[in-house]
From TrEMBL:
Lineage of the organism: Eukaryota, Viridiplantae, Streptophyta, Embryophyta, Tracheophyta
SUPFAM superfamilies: MFS general substrate transporter
Domain Major facilitator superfamily (MFS) profile positions: 28-166
Native species: Cannabis sativa
Name assigned to this protein: Major facilitator superfamily (MFS) profile domain-containing protein
InterPro entries the UniProt entry points to: MFS_dom, MFS_sugar_transport-like, MFS_trans_sf, STP/PLT_plant, Sugar/inositol_transpt
Topology class, membrane: Multi-pass membrane protein
Length: 166
């Protein structure tokens, strides 16, 4: 029966669902926060980088010129460049999709292979973004970083689920 009521009274099983904070619950919250921090950290970094004048001059000159024309106005919703949006969002979309691929790799090849794929992806993404000389290199680097985050996020959750974190 919906609502947990029997004949207007509290269900006999209500005591089974009492509020308790356990070590497991606290640890689950920490693991969830760490997984979210992978995306949150990148959001803070990429948001700061995409508003830097040197970055905009080098990779998005149209956005930079538009920003310079409207210096006395707020920057809110002025970055309406589709390529800049692709640069920012590619990591998050690929991270989501690669989490499912990471699950498949872990199931078929083991956790070690999954961790190696994630680590190599992080490395390649960092190298490509650091050495980027054009927008394509930036976006491909972000895609590799997204794969690394997706694999890392999946492994973090699996560690917690299996009780092997730490």
């Amino acid at each position: 029966m919906a609502g947990g009521f029997v004949g207007g009274g509290v269900s006999e099983r209500a005591h089974l669902y009492e509020y308790r904070i356990t070590g497991y619950f606290i640890f689950a919250c920490i693991v969830a926060a760490l997984g979210g921090s992978l995306f949150g950290y990148d959001l803070g970094v990429s948001g700061g980088v995409t508003s830097m004048d040197d970055f905009l001059k080098e990779f998005f000159p149209k956005v930079y010129r538009r920003k310079q024309m409207h210096l006395k106005e707020t920057d809110y919703c002025k970055y309406d460049n589709q390529i800049l949006t692709l640069f920012t969002s590619s990591l998050y979309f690929v991270g989501l999709v690669s989490t499912f691929a990471a699950s498949h790799v872990t199931r078929n090849k083991g956790r070690r292979a999954s961790i190696i794929v994630g680590s190599i992806s992080f490395f390649l993404g960092a190298v490509l973004n650091a050495a980027a000389i054009n927008i394509a290199m930036l976006i491909i680097g972000r895609i590799f970083l997204g794969i690394g985050i997706g694999f890392g996020n999946q492994e973090e959750g699996k560690d917690f689920y299996l009780g092997t974190a730490g």
